[in-house]
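Researcher: Quick test of sequence recovery. Tokens follow.
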């Protein structure tokens, strides 16, 4: 039975297998946190259970544990490898400048069109958490869960095999498109957010491809989501209430946001370029 199933799986085109595997690994893993959150509530116990799960998840997806026959493939999909000190430096620069560019883009977007606060807040009410510290623990845990699992799924198990078969350009486009598509069911996916989510996927795909590691994608994704969950969605870190430039005019905060976006994006792309050049041909 196992041999027959393996034979059937191997007859599926590599790109299709990569998409199926990536979506399963990424989306199933990311939604385990919701199970803990619903079952245990926004509590320390839910956070501890998720931390334990993420440790086991990382170990398995990086090639540890059964089945032995897939260990090598799992290591390859998770982009396990060594990085030099220079690569670590440029990777961290990319991981930090990436979320800055995303949040600056959000500010620019919602200075051009009204910010739909109700849509962003829907489903992210943390008032049941016992205090501000518990709210922040929930936010950080949720961000780490999404950052680790979605990067493993979309930029690892999905993107890596397609890179090997069709090259990085097609692989990054496919992973970014699917990354955006699987966020379309969110209430906050309003007009203007779809290209922003797709663009974020492109940048994460470039960071992971150029560094040959998921680490910096995970860091950047987690930092991005901490800001998203704490400020834009749950609003425990504040509320965005700036008027659009059509109401308030082109003021200095808008120009600063545009400048931050351009600089952060330029730094991210420069780091990607330096990472790509750091590897031997």
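Model:
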């Amino acid at each position: 039975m196992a041999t027959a199933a393996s034979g059937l799986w191997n007859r599926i085109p590599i790109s299709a297998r990569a998409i199926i595997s990536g979506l399963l690994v990424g989306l199933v893993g990311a939604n385990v946190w919701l199970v803990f959150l619903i079952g245990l509530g926004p509590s320390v116990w839910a956070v501890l259970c998720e931390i334990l799960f993420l440790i086991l998840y990382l170990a398995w997806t990086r090639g540890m544990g059964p089945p032995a026959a897939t260990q090598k493939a799992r290591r390859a999909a998770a982009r396990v490898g060594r990085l030099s000190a220079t690569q670590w430096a440029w990777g961290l620069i990319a991981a930090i400048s990436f979320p800055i560019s995303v949040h600056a883009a959000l500010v620019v977007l919602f200075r051009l069109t009204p910010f739909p606060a109700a849509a962003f807040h829907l489903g992210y009410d943390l008032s049941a958490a016992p205090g501000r510290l518990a709210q922040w623990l929930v936010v950080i845990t949720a961000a780490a869960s999404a950052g680790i699992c979605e990067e493993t799924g979309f930029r690892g198990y999905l993107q890596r095999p397609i890179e090997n078969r069709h090259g990085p350009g097609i692989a990054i486009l496919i992973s970014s498109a699917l990354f955006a598509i699987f966020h379309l069911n969110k209430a906050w996916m309003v007009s203007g957010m779809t290209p922003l989510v797709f663009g974020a996927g492109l940048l994460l795909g470039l960071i992971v491809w150029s560094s040959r590691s998921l680490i910096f994608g995970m860091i950047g994704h987690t930092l991005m989501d901490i800001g998203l969950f704490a400020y834009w969605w749950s609003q425990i870190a504040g509320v965005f209430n700036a008027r659009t430039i059509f109401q308030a005019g082109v003021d200095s905060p808008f120009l600063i946001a545009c400048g931050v976006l351009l600089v952060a994006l330029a730094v991210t792309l420069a780091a990607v370029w330096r990472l790509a050049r750091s590897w031997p041909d």
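Residues 180 and 194 are 6 Å apart (CA to CA).
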